[in-house]
Specification:
Blueprint lengths: L8 E7 L7 E6 L5 E5 H10 L7 E5 L12 E5 H7 L3 E2 L2 E4 L6 E4 L1 H13 L10 H10 L11 E2 L8 E2 L1
Antiparallel strand pairs: 1-2, 2-3, 3-10, 4-5, 6-9, 7-8
The structure holds zinc ion (2 copies).
The site of one zinc ion has 6 residues, from strand 4 and helix 2.
Length: 163
Amino acid sequence: MPNPYADCKILGPYVHNGKKGRLYVKCTQPDGKRHSINYSRYILELAIGRKLSTVEHVHHINKDIHDNRLENLEVLDETTHHKLHVRRLKPHDFTCPMCGGKFTLDGQELNSLLTKRKLFPKQPGPFCDRSCASRAVKRGVTIQSIVDPEYYSTIDSGQGEKE
Ligand SMILES: [Zn+2]
Ligand SMILES: [Zn+2]
């Protein structure tokens, strides 16, 4: 099997500070250029004997991004990969417009709220509880905007980062 990094000097793997502590290796090319490669991507490239293209992602089959055993890695095209990773919303804090009380919707609740809102854009809320909701309807209080719901990043594309 040809080693696609035969002419590079590889150092690592190192733990990435951000990115949930995933591993990467540093690659120094013969011309002195350096870049980092996601470790899972590097492992797979060595195994298949070629570098992956930018639209080829490395997916962790058991969804554990720290499990870089070869049998846990597969190459997927970008589109297929994104479909496999359903985006999960982060919990979101609200202030009830009726009583001023603080409350939090978890990701699932927020997701169903956003889905409902697409169907019924004029539906008021969210409110902290049913009694605030029914008082709001009587008084004609309208919707609270939900600014930039945040998603957990679940994509383990294994793309290398430029240094
Ligand atoms: Zn994946
Ligand atoms: Zn309330």
